[in-house]
């Protein structure tokens, strides 16, 4: 893992700890700098941090599933019975993707895919959890692809990823022109992400 952890990475890692017990989260192949940074984050207390490569740790290789976008096998609920560990390579969410998984692919892990849409780290792990623990098929999870976020009355930003879709926390339904109610879905983002986007863009976001 790279030394320079971006703020959005840390927000995503903290988000992961809200739906995965920290004792079940492992970061491997960390630089000393990255390890020191992550150890100081209160929300990540209990997470397992290693500077060792995954291959050098005492995990049964046949119980590890590498989430690989190039895999021909889509992750299925029954995979939760076969595998104990689900491995995500590098920092997900690059646009365009930089195939960081290639460094892990060469070790011969069994692989599964979440589909052909690029996801952020927290989204990919949340989808995996919903499939193997909650037994929901990948294609049955609601998504928003490339959500558009307004940054002013005239401008907006398109986030180039797939996100899990959830009801808007303040207005879960909308009334259509035919007086029907429909779900008002928004992308599931880490706490603090909108504020970070505001700070980075020095603009007021409408969401």
TrEMBL record:
Q: From its record, what is one biological process in GO terms? A: methylation
Which keywords does UniProt give here? Methyltransferase, Transferase
- Pfam families to which the protein is assigned, alphabetical: SFM1-like
The Swiss-Prot or TrEMBL record annotates one GO molecular function as: protein-arginine omega-N monomethyltransferase activity
In which domain of life is the source organism classified?
Eukaryota
PANTHER family the UniProt entry points to: PROTEIN ARGININE N-METHYLTRANSFERASE SFM1
Q: What is this protein called?
A: SAM-dependent RNA methyltransferase
Source species of the chain: Gigaspora rosea
């Amino acid at each position: 893992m790279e030394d320079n952890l971006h703020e959005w990475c840390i927000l995503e890692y903290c988000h992961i700890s809200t739906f995965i017990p920290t004792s079940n989260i492992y970061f491997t192949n960390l630089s000393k700098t990255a390890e020191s940074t992550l150890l100081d984050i209160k929300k990540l207390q209990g997470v397992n941090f290693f500077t060792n490569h995954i291959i050098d740790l005492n995990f049964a290789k046949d119980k590890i599933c590498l989430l690989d976008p190039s895999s021909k096998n889509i992750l299925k609920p029954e995979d939760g019975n076969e595998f104990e560990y689900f491995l995500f390579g590098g920092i997900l969410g690059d646009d365009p993707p930089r195939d960081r998984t290639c460094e892990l692919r060469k070790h011969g892990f069994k692989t599964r895919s979440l589909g052909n849409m690029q996801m952020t780290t927290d989204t990919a792990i949340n989808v995996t959890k919903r499939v193997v623990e909650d037994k929901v098929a990948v294609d049955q999870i609601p998504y928003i692809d490339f959500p558009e976020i307004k940054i002013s009355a005239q401008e907006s930003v398109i986030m180039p990823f797939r996100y899990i879709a959830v009801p808007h926390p303040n207005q879960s339904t909308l009334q259509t022109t035919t007086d029907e109610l429909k779900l008002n879905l928004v992308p599931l983002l880490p706490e603090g992400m909108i504020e970070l986007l505001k700070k980075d863009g020095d603009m007021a976001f409408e969401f």
